[in-house]
Amino acid sequence: MKANEIVWKDVNDYYFNTNIKSGHYKMLMKFGRVFPSTKSQAKFFVKERIEMDPFNNKDVERVELLLNKHGYYGVYKYTRSREWVRLVNYEDFYAALKKEFSI
Length: 103
Description:
4 helices
């Protein structure tokens, strides 16, 4: 399903798993809890084929901004609890990251 089709149980005003972190980001990124925000982070994210943990509504907004900027859109599926969603089309996400950071 696309981002506009998601029905949220709770609408949050904080980022759940697309936090931006500098410094020691590799381990947190491998856990799926850091959104790549620099060229080196994006290279690592794409090279390691990292997938993020579930997203809340703010996370989906951040991911959609990046994807839409480069002509892609996110495809999501609900988690079992239907409180969060997971990104399904990571190949498009990796392509958008490559374009964003000129990798």
